[in-house]
Amino acid sequence: MRKNFFKQIGTGFICAIMLMVLSISAFATNAMQENYDVTTDKGTVLAEYTFNVDTNGSASTLGDYYDNDPVITDVPSFKTGYLYPNLSKYFGLTKAFHVSTSSDQSSGGIFLYLYNPDGDLVSDDWSMGVNDYAYWTLFLPSSGTYTLKIVNMSDETVNVAAFWEG
Confidence band (pLDDT; 50, 70, 90) for 99? Predict the structure, then answer.
């Protein structure tokens, strides 16, 4: 009788720990939010990239890591724009996809839809602010050219930069 009691207590304890771990991992977020303005920063390092910003606000990269170059575009207010970031090769099981936005506007939103090289939607309700930085981690993404559909829901043009982490 006493032995069964300890088995039940032990089983309950293990179940409680498993439930706690599952609930913590279920609510963990993989998007890191920071204020990042690619048009005003001079030489800011994001992962393995250094963005140089010239006097007219155009950004360019000084180098790449595994040929995963950042791509940059401007999306007019209440319009849709597209970027085509390339994922050439990588090591490991996951890959982080980074996006930064900048605008003269302080309010509004950006909705992002990432499609893999086969045309399948791989993003899930990705959204961010007009002056924002975020990244999402994808599990075993396939190599190739992805399509990022950007929907600008603000009153101003938004500059968007995206790249795969090296």
Answer: very high
